[in-house]
């Protein structure tokens, strides 16, 4: 029996993955904010499923959830990142951070490093970071990672995707003897809940996009294959099931180290 932990596992692609592994008799821990979604998950899951309510915008909530998971699940086979929330307007978290940066990047940083010990005890451990690998470095504004000068919801998510690529690069570099595989995944445009706080124009665009998007199974089944058979390399990246190179500028090691140092300093102050 495997153990899989899924942030954002109460909806969309994350929920599909949670149900797939519950169906196989694995233990599944999902993290989300909405208690109704959490209750619905636990009712369906029975004894194998656990819902942890946490707002991943908050550093303290991330740390508490990680502690709780460590205490109850000493071995984790797979850690999947699916939490994401679009915001048309810049929002400050309780820590004073831009909210997309906080839950879409910083939370993934905390969970990956925080649960690495439990992952290393599993036979074939993997972190699957579902975001949007492959963009150029220009997708992130390294001089203003909190988007204080300009903010748009799409750009904040685009930047988060780039930061997650660099998170994977730094993670693989920092643990050269580690067995945990880091897998970056772009699922493609998918008809999920696409949760968010939208202005009316963006809401209409998203609704239209959702109507033409592929079904969740088409996005999630290639992720299931990666979870079942993680690639041999410490870091790999996939767009809609197709492997892409992690050797180009977009996965620059120097940029990854700089971002890692920035993140450590930031977390040390919180
Ligand atoms: N759908 C697409 O077209 C698409 C395209 C490219 C990449 N992706 C990536 O695929 C992944 C899954 O996306 P999706 O479309 O399946 O998502 P989704 O249907 O919108 O579901 C998002 C999940 O994240 C949780 N969540 C959001 N903010 C949270 C917070 N602050 N704290 C805790 N949980 C939070 C939600 O739970 P609550 O409702 O309880 O907050 C929900 O379970 C994301 O990483 C996304 O970037 C999706």
From TrEMBL:
Keywords: Oxidoreductase. The keyword Hydrolase does not apply. SUPFAM superfamilies: NAD(P)-binding Rossmann-fold domains (SSF51735). It comes from the Bacteria. GO terms for molecular function: oxidoreductase activity. InterPro entries: NAD(P)-bd_dom_sf, SDR_fam. Pfam families: adh_short (PF00106). This is NAD(P)-dependent dehydrogenase (Short-subunit alcohol dehydrogenase family). It comes from Nocardia alba.
